[in-house]
From TrEMBL:
UniProt protein name: [FeFe] hydrogenase H-cluster radical SAM maturase HydE
Organism: Candidatus Lachnoclostridium pullistercoris
UniProtKB keywords: 4Fe-4S, Iron, Iron-sulfur, Metal-binding, S-adenosyl-L-methionine
SMART domains: Elp3 (SM00729)
Alphabetical list of InterPro entries matching this protein: Aldolase_TIM, Elp3/MiaA/NifB-like_rSAM, FeFe-hyd_HydE_rSAM, HydE/PylB-like, rSAM, rSAM_sf
Recorded name of the encoding gene: hydE
PROSITE patterns, A to Z: RADICAL_SAM
Residues bound to (3R)-3-methyl-D-ornithine: S145
Residue positions binding [4Fe-4S] cluster: C70, C74, C77
Cofactor(s) named in the record: [4Fe-4S] cluster
Amino acid sequence: MSLEREKRTVRLAEKLAREGDLSDGELLELIRDRNEASARCLRRLAGEARDRVYGKKIYIRGLIEFTNYCRNNCFYCGIRRGNEKAVRYRLKEEEILECCREGFELGFRTFVLQGGEDPWYNDERLEHLVRAVRREFPDCAITLSVGERSRESYERLFAAGVDRYLLRHETAVKSHYEMLHPAEMSFDHRMQCLRDLKDIGYQTGCGMMVQSPGQTEEDLVADLRFMKEFRPHMIGIGPFLSHKDTPFKEEKSGTAELTVYLLSIIRLMLPEVLLPATTALGTAEEGGRKLGVLAGANVVMPNLSPAGVRKKYMLYDNKLSGGSEAAEHLDLLREEMGSIGFEVAVDRGDSRMDG
Ligand code: 5AD
């Protein structure tokens, strides 16, 4: 890396912080020519941007992985339909409510109900579940993350009391989408779902894996461009990590290094976005979640699922669910965040974006 290129990337980082955007060509250069100096510069500027909007507060979300049945067959995912080794489970409403009660006692004010696309959880059952959570926890935010559904279904669940919805776009490039998913899945439908969600009034989250198979640096620029234009309230990114029982078992995993670099760029492009330091980031590298927060993230999502099912929601090999990833060890998380100068917040942590 020549000194000249290093200087150029640092100047691009500064311009991004000033203007909140760069041309696609400049973003590509910032990513392709990344180096220790540009990473350091982005980290500092993104940290300042996050602090201006959210201060040193880290929001927590209690993640309840309530079913690992899935009708989809995504090539990267450990709970894909075709993985016959996956041990399937489905929590019933009362068990999910029990998780929420435990979470509430611990201090969680957002519950994220996440699952595979499980046909058993049709609109009627999901609506019943959401209404029960809403009734018992009127002051908590409910986030749903159960994949692609019809607009009518999204409307019904919103009316039942869901506040937020997470649906990663996975990649903003159709040809790349088709490398990650079987032909029966549709890029256009996924994008339509995201538009519907936002239009209905959900605080909406999108996101992608970093260095998923076939992803180019140009594809990452397309992801950034899409996110800048879509203006989601939340963005979840984490490194692709291979899973031994999927078609991508031999594929190379993504790095924490590029993931945190992108976190900083995203923070500078969308200063108000809610940006988690994800479990995948923590799994890719020891201390990865701290690096994520130091790079501009402001959310963490500890696991609130019953201990007995945590190991069954294996999206990728070695997925963490113990230590400070476990909701019941919030003290460890407080310590971890405290050690880098951050405080775990106990409010709902709604988006500061205006829509
Ligand atoms: N590595 C990293 N992330 C994964 N996801 C699914 N499988 C993997 C994997 N092998 C992510 C997808 C999905 C989210 C729930 O988990 O982006 O949207």
